[in-house]
Design a protein that fits this description.
By secondary structure, this protein is mainly α. It has a two-stranded antiparallel ribbon with strand order 1-2. It has 18 helices and two strands.
Length: about 375
């Protein structure tokens, strides 16, 4: 028997019907796959963003610039004119001290305010004022930050280590098996699955192109198998002659009866569903190994540095500023107001260097000792 070689036939006529069947299968799976959110491992839950630390000292420092402005204005009315004193043989002149310390304090505040403002402003480059440090070096900041993240924070080796330490793969495999066991034991799931399977087989068999493609493939396989077997070939030709139909017609008739055969034997799927969880348990080590290997390959292909850098470069200047300010705003404000305090201290040094330095040394020394004692 000679079989004419056929070119593979691509089935396109019923692609929409096949899609609808698989969509229905997806709906069945989604209907029963409802994982309990409370069973998520605590180690891998997303953590909420830490709140910005509220610094109590900031509330104390905030009025200082306004006090200094008021003292500066008051110095024009009265500034210890003609006041003086003698302490330990040192002659002290108090005239002008209010203006000195107020101006020094305001300069300290303004210089810190300008320095912090210059980190972010101007956003766009200006002819005379230039551009803020962060917007001017946005690309460089993105590169450095992405490099630090990829090298030290979430590099592939660290991710692999965390996967091994957390045992997340085995954890979720056990969770999935427990869930599969619960689903496969449900009668409504088995009924839905069997109904879908029978409908799918019937729709495929009703497609003439599908039957032709399968029968052509079987004929080619038979021809290859009987290539050097003359006796079997002769027996096959004899059977075709006696039955009054070609082998192609015989195979096609078998395919048409496939839905009836499937419906008659659909009960075997019950046995398969009963054994399915146990089969997964028996091959748990291999499953974990395969999933781990796939994850490692995915991680090795993931370029963390490029991913972080590309996303940071998409940030506009204002968004980048807000990101930095949201994390450090309280500290930046404290630095500004501390500038006023340090400037005021500098004013006392300008007024009377020796006594001021001695007093400051005593004060700072006492603060350091108290801090050391509390720390211990």
């Amino acid at each position: 028997m000679e079989v004419e070689e056929k070119k593979p036939v691509t089935t396109n006529t019923d692609s929409s019907g096949e899609e609808s069947h698989f969509k229905k299968l997806g709906e069945i799976i989604s209907k029963y796959l409802e994982f309990d959110s409370g069973s998520t491992s605590k180690d891998i839950r997303a953590t909420s963003a830490p709140t910005i630390a509220k610094l109590p000292i900031l509330q104390v420092l905030k009025p200082i610039p306004w006090i200094l402005c008021a003292l500066f204005a008051f110095s024009f009315l009265w500034d210890f004119q003609g006041f003086g004193a003698e302490i330990f043989g040192l002659s002290l002149q108090f005239e002008g001290i209010i203006r000195i310390i107020s101006v020094s304090g305001m300069i300290g505040f303004l210089t810190n305010w300008i320095a912090i403002t210059m980190l972010f402003r101007p956003v766009k480059k200006r002819p005379l004022l230039g551009q803020g440090l962060v917007p001017a070096h946005k690309d460089r900041i993105a590169y450095r930050l992405s490099h630090a993240v990829s090298e030290d924070l979430i590099n592939p080796e660290l991710i692999k280590q965390k996967i091994r330490e957390s045992k997340a793969i085995s954890h979720y495999r056990l969770q999935a098996i427990d869930h599969i066991e619960q689903i496969t034991e449900r009668e409504d799931f088995r009924k839905d699955l069997k109904t879908w399977l029978l409908e799918y087989i019937d729709s495929m068999v009703q497609n003439p192109e599908f039957r032709k493609k399968v029968s052509d493939h079987i004929l080619l396989e038979i021809e290859d198998a009987l290539q050097n077997r003359a006796l079997e070939k002769a027996a096959l030709k004899t059977y075709s002659f006696l039955s009054g139909q070609t082998l192609h017609q015989f195979i096609n008739n078998l395919l048409e009866r496939l839905p009836v055969t499937a419906e008659r034997n659909i009960g075997y799927i019950e046995e398969y569903l009963d054994e399915f969880p146990e089969k997964i348990h028996r091959n748990s080590d291999k499953i974990d190994e395969v999933i781990t290997l796939l994850l490692y390959k995915l991680i090795n292909q993931l370029n963390v540095q490029n991913l972080v850098e590309e996303n940071l470069q998409k940030y506009d200047e204002q968004r980048l500023e807000m990101m930095i300010r949201n994390a450090t705003n309280e500290q930046l404000k404290t630095i500004q107001y501390l500038g006023a305090v340090l400037g005021t201290i500098g004013g006392f040094v300008i007024w009377e260097p020796i006594i001021s330095l001695i007093g400051l040394s005593i004060i700072f020394g006492a603060v350091y000792l108290i801090d050391w004692w509390l720390y211990q």
